[in-house]
Design brief:
By secondary structure, the chain is an all-beta fold. It has no helices and 15 strands. The strands form 3 sheets. It has an 8-stranded mixed sheet with strand order 8-10-13-12-11-14-15-9, with no helix packed on it. Strands 4, 5, 6 and 7 form a 4-stranded antiparallel sheet that branches. It has a 3-stranded antiparallel sheet with strand order 1-2-3, with no helix packed on it. About 30% of the residues are buried.
Length: about 170
């Protein structure tokens, strides 16, 4: 996921708000838009400055904000997400035997205990490690690139084309 700050207007003007778009790193699609009660403390725009930090799981966001963009009215805004958007970051290894049995670590975000993984429509064995890590044992597959789909128990789903290559 990419956490991209934005402003609703020019920095330092009254009434301008700040926000954060959470984008899928592979597709660029907006997965979540968060509007903050104040604008970021910047005199440039929402993309330039050191005013946003994210915890290691992407669940807590820390922003230096201001009612009018000025330092004298600055404070910190903390946002805790109930659910981090579901996303696939990396697969390691990204290739393995078409016969199956390859142990693959999937890193990403928003994974829930009980998540299922399909590789080109075939169910894989899944071990939930934490909200950012799944360990998967690949099923037998046809040779070539494979689409990986993760589905959480709450119905959330995400897919990544050509994420794994079976040989």
């Amino acid at each position: 996921m990419i956490y991209q700050p934005f402003l609703t207007g020019p920095a330092g003007n009254a009434g301008v708000k700040g926000g954060i778009d959470i984008l899928d790193a592979h597709s660029g699609a907006v997965r979540l838009r968060i509007l903050l009660p104040q604008q970021f403390m910047t005199d440039v725009d929402g993309l330039h400055g050191s005013f946003l930090a994210i915890d290691e799981n992407g669940q807590r966001l820390f922003a230096i904000t201001s009612t009018d963009g000025s330092a004298q009215n600055a404070g910190i805004t903390v946002v805790t997400l109930a659910h981090v958007p579901l996303g696939i970051g990396t697969l390691n290894p990204a290739s393995g035997s078409a016969a199956g049995g390859t142990q693959v670590t999937i890193r990403g975000s928003g994974f829930q205990s009980g998540a299922t993984v399909g590789i080109s429509g075939t169910s894989a064995t899944v071990i939930f490690k934490d909200m950012n890590t799944l360990t998967v044992t690949t099923p037998p597959l046809s040779s070539g690139t494979q689409r990986v789909t993760i589905t959480n128990p709450d119905g959330g789903t995400v897919s990544l084309d050509a994420a794994f290559t079976a040989h």
